[in-house]
Write a structure and sequence with these properties.
Largest sheet: 4 strands, antiparallel
Shape: elongated
Distance between the termini: 11 Å
Helix content: 25-40%
CATH topology of the largest domain: Alpha-Beta Plaits
Order of helices and strands: HHHHEHEEHEH
CATH superfamily of the largest domain: Lrp/AsnC effector binding domain/regulation of amino acid metabolism (RAM) domain
Radius of gyration: 20 Å
Strand order of the largest sheet: 2-3-1-4
Amino acid sequence: MNDALRAAPKLDETDLAILEKVESDFDVSLETLAEELDLSKSAVHYRLNKLKDSGVITSVTADVDPLALGLEMVAITDVSVTHERGYSDDIGEKLTALDGVEQVYYTMGDVDFVVISRVQSRDQLNDLIDRMVAIDGINETSSRFVMQEFETDRQVAATLSDEARDVILDSQGD
């Protein structure tokens, strides 16, 4: 079993239901949650605090539509680097700090990092790529451009497979 899962706080079906509801609407009221889950407001409040204190809920945010800000150009950039001690953390942090970068993944395989970035124009993208290759240790980049985005929920609890859900709930008895 995964070590991270062993260290996870004890969760039950009600906790997972709360997570699903909060993920789909971060601004949902305690009254609504209590009514939908057939719990008291104080029970919902206690469980939400427990989920926050244990690090399961890390923040409460609003989703900003990038298209409303003119950020219509999305690039997926493969980054190859020189392999030196500690390179993944160092380069990963530097890539993450670049303006325009949304996500950075350290990967295994033909490339070392995959960077998802979003900008308003080709000039901004050229500037971003220039800033990437200026990072010490980056040898090469190769970018692909997104032609169409398909909306995803980006939710964790609501998209758990039955198997993953069972593992989470079964691990609580250990």
